[in-house]
Amino acid sequence: MMVRVRIVLVAAVLLAAAAVAQAQLRGHGGPVRALAISQDGKTAISGSFDTSAIRWSLEKGAASEVLRFHDSAVNAVALLRDGRAASSGEDARIAIWKPGESKPVAVLEGHKAPVAALAVSPDGATLASASWDHTARLWPLAGGEARVLEGHKDNVNGVAFTPDGKSVVTAGYDATLRIWPLAGGAPEIVTLPTPLNTVAIAPDGEVAAAGADGKVYFLTANGKLRGEVEIGTVPIIAVTMSPDGKLVAAAGIRGSVAIVDRATRNLERTLVGPGLPVWSVAFFPDSRTLLTGGTDRMIRRWDAIKGEPIGDLLAGAPQDPLAAYAGDPGAEVYRACVACHTLNGNDGVRAGPTLAGIFGRKIATLPGYNFSEALRKMDIVWTPETVSKLFEVGPNEYTPGTKMPEQRIGSPEDRAALMRFLEKTTR
Questions:
Q1: The pTM is what?
Q2: How far apart are CA 189 and CA 167, in angstroms?
Q3: If 0-12 CB within 10 Å is exposed, 13-18 middle and 19+ buried, where does residue 205 land?
Q4: With CB atoms 3.0 to 4.6 Å apart as the test, which of 294, 304, 336, 377 could cross-link to 253 if both were Cys?
Q5: pLDDT digits (tens, 9 = 90+) for 273-307
Q6: Is the distance from CB of 239 to CB of 245 less than 8 angstroms?
Q7: Which of 48-52, 298-302, 311-315 is predicted least confidently?
């Protein structure tokens, strides 16, 4: 009897250890920018600032394929109905991948700026893309010319199809949500109080959109505002809807994920991670389990109902690079920059150049970093005044041709705090 009990206990321990091992997925060398999960819950795909996409076996908790094609950060990924995958990013190209193939089977070109989001139509026949070139495009996956959706006045950051497959919704940094009828004709245009970063749609057609002001806005399928939920005061980067439509998960730059009950508009719970920005979220088909990807390069698994991590929350996580500056208001503003820039030139490679020694340095002259030709032609010298101006008007206006994500800091006090922080940490 004692031997049998021990065997059962050992088996239980091994099963628990296996579950913990499967809970966290690690393989990217940079922040995890995008996530998608297959309809059967067996496969996921992720995209990263490290320029790669990874196809994961969620049953094994391991990478099955590393997909390398893009020249820079992979901003968006999607899993297609026939088992293929799509990835897109800063290089403005969309790659279509077959399982087991080391190179894309097709490359979709036409966008003139980074592609920020992808969505697949309910019938699986069309891929939608949203781009910083102020357009969205509809690509027939069987082949043929893309339909271009024009009208946004700024970056298009989000795209989603309505469940009936009759419309596609785009969210832009121009603070507009646009509902485009796929049969043709002008879109319904809804202006919201804030620049928009992301959009998701429930099975009943209700739209959830979020952006710079930290609120999630809920609208009817034809664009009528139904309500809003305040998550915080910092930008929301990504939202996703549970497949049953009951929950909305909203991720932000402070490193937490808010779980909202869609029916009651209540903020039910907050998933608190290592404190670094969370860039991507995706629900499993069970509408309960959630994957998150963030700045710490980890993909984490959560129970969204209990509000708890599955497995060890900090397993394999790097130390918070801003822990030494706790309480510094400038450090909190800088937290949104951690994904791409280090303060010390010896802290490894990120998507953007290190900020070590930035003040007094001419733009695009740091050795060892591949700057765009547009930046190399500029005469800007980085000082507290010029860096502050960059965030006041935005990188797209101040440094046209940059690959830097569009970020503005509206508060003069926050910009001043960031400059003081950089002056003391980048010398």
A1: 0.74
A2: 13
A3: middle
A4: 336
A5: 776 789 999 999 999 999 999 888 889 999 999 99
A6: no
A7: 311-315
